[in-house]
Design a protein that fits this description.
Blueprint: H1 3-37, E1 55-60, E2 66-70, E3 76-78, H2 86-94, H3 108-121, H4 132-141, H5 150-174, E4 179-188, E5 193-203, E6 208-218, H6 225-239, E7 245-249, H7 254-266, H8 284-297, H9 307-321, E8 328-329, H10 330-352
Helix pairs in contact: 3-5, 5-9, 6-7, 8-9
């Protein structure tokens, strides 16, 4: 190849290198220009708190605050950066509209049984189930709750009375020993009605003293020995205890003397009853405790309650709770009685000196 041709090729190579360098410089300057003119967009962080499963972020609202809405009840909460998620977490655990798969399904029958126990245990009126705030609390705890009226509450209490009575009858049938009884009269001042309380006292196979109310029923006047004897015998006959009587403890009213004679001579089943001299004086206190409960049940504000409901409330309360201060080991009771008698005698000696 001659010299002019070589010079031409060298000039063309130099021109191509110049063009490549020039184009590369333009691209770098363009990238620098874009980096200066376009603003920086920060990367949006993903919300990692567990509570956001139950909430939707609404962003900035008209009042200038950022809020989130509960997906279940629709309530809105402020979710500014300085607020955190503690409020959302609290609401997520207590939201009444949030489905709770781990919670037990509402059982209306069990709810009614628990409500009847509350009324019996705490001497509450049947109208308790209709109190406004009680129903509001029930709806807060379970939106599926089904409220009942006071007539239904009374029927549930009486049904529980019949169930517990059947259990006690079974216990008394299996009891092989004899039973002591007390019979006392009481007048409810709020309704001016007479009631008779018949209580059974027996020691079970574990040597525990049991005091069970058998009847707390209305006794219409006249309160003669004839009427009292009939009420006592009907009660013993109904429980199947007319042949298991050991003693009957009464107070010193004149009508009780004639009543005792009628029971021992007119009704053959009670002819083998032990003498009233063997009566246990401690058992009268249980009846007085029953009358104290009766005073709370038959208050001036509940003077229209039916006698059968009075008996259901007082008797069932006794069967479920008992006379707590009079039940327990029989040896412990007599030991406590000896301690009290010794204490009283020492006090008498000290006062005499």
């Amino acid at each position: 190849m001659d010299l002019p041709s070589l010079e031409t090729l060298a000039a063309m190579d130099a021109e191509n290198e110049y063009i490549e360098v020039q184009s590369k410089g333009e691209e770098e300057s363009h990238e620098q220009t874009l980096s200066v003119t376009q603003p920086f967009k920060p990367v949006r962080k993903r919300r990692r708190a567990k509570c956001w499963v139950d909430f939707t972020h609404l962003g900035l609202e008209d009042d200038g605050k950022v809020r989130a809405r509960c997906n279940h009840c629709g309530f809105k909460f402020v979710v500014e950066k300085n607020h955190g998620t503690s409020t959302l977490n609290r609401h997520s655990t207590k939201c009444p509209a949030k489905p709770r798969p781990d919670a037990p399904k509402y059982d209306h029958k069990a709810d009614r049984e628990k409500m009847s126990e509350i009324i019996i245990y705490h001497d509450l009126p049947f109208k308790y189930v209709e109190y406004e705030k009680v129903r509001e609390r029930d709806r807060f705890l379970n939106p599926d709750v089904q409220h009942i009226c006071r007539q239904t509450a009374a029927a549930d209490v009486y049904k529980r009375y019949e169930i517990e009575k059947a259990k006690l009858i079974e216990v008394l049938v299996k009891h092989k020993g004899r039973v002591c009884f007390t019979a006392n009269l009481w007048t409810a001042r709020s309704v001016v009605m007479g009631y008779i309380c018949i209580t059974a006292h027996f020691i079970d196979e574990n040597w525990r003293l049991n005091n069970k109310i058998l009847a707390f029923c209305n006794l219409k006047p006249p309160h003669s020995g004839e009427e009292i004897a009939k009420a006592v015998y009907d009660c013993l006959k109904g429980w199947g205890l007319e042949k298991k009587v050991f003693t009957i403890t009464l107070d010193n009213a004149k009508a009780n003397d004639s009543m005792l004679n009628i029971l021992k001579h007119r009704y053959g089943d009670l002819a083998s009853m032990a003498s009233d001299l063997l009566s246990i004086p401690i058992t009268t206190v249980a009846a007085e405790s029953a009358f104290s409960v009766g005073g709370r049940v038959l208050s001036p504000f509940r003077n229209r309650i039916l006698p059968k409901n009075v008996q259901a409330l007082i008797a069932t309360r006794n069967w479920l709770r008992g006379f707590e201060e009079f039940e327990g080991d029989i040896e412990d009771y007599f030991n406590g009685e000896d301690d009290e008698s010794a204490k009283s005698s020492s006090e008498v000696r000290n006062s005499s000196t």
